[in-house]
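Reopening this one. Same input as before:
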Amino acid sequence: MKAAIKEFHTPLSEPACCYAPDQPLSELGFAEQFLVWSLRVQWRVTAEGAGTKSHLLQRAFDALQMPEGPAIVAELAAVLALTVKRPLSIPCPRWRALTSDEVRLLNFVAALQRRDGQPGAALDPSWATAPCGASPIWVPAQRLALAFSAAGLVFGSASQGLSFPEAMPRLLH
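Same output, byte for byte:
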């Protein structure tokens, strides 16, 4: 009888994907690729002293109907820069593989999006600033995970065979 009962799985209840340093971006789903790209663009804008706004990021997030996206990514990048006490490995947006810091961030944001009760386990311990394990990274990462969910961008979708969102063609032209 138990064999006849099927478990109900939603994209948010699926187990975490295994992201790895040096993993090609082409192996990731759209949500992961977009998060990595947007963080890299924001990191470069901030490093070049061009302020905190990128018009390219704004257009990309607008195409996905996430106008608040660039502000959340900028906040997350700023908090990462202040919290992590070493240089972060966030390369040029054209780099074709994940870095170890991008893997840490993807794992954490994916755990927040899944809402499995254990996102703190995915947070790199070196990113926590208080003895109790609190981190200023938590709030912008949570906002980003919720914004991606609201836009239908689910982390781990590459393994589920989900298609790109309709907004993607507008980003390419």
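So the earlier flakiness isn't reproducible anymore. For the record, The CA atoms of residues 61 and 69 lie 6 Å apart.
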